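A quick aside before the break. I want you to see a complete sequence-to-structure record at least once, exactly as it would be stored in a machine-readable document. Don't worry about memorizing anything.
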Amino acid sequence: MEISVRRQGKAGKMKRRKHKYYNPADARALFRELSGYEREGTQLFLDGCPCRTEDIVDACMVAEEQIYMRDFISDEEEKIRRINFVKINQK
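That is the input. The structure line, written in tokens, reads:
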């Protein structure tokens, strides 16, 4: 869900800024999904750094100006071994 917030800019004009509010059910679902991957031995990364499930969920749920794209890395047997969450800036 997105809402627009009006803020006063430098010249005294009001600017609109979008804020995203997340659904707690979505956060729980993402947490369960990523926890399952971790239990199977999949490594989780956020912007190239190893990261905990909780940190990835927080980053994905409260992101204001960006979204995160998943990059799945699999082995020779097509089993997912690593998931990279890469920040995509929106303009």
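Two observations worth writing down. The chain has a mean pLDDT of 78. The helical segments are 24-39, 53-62. We'll return to this after the break.
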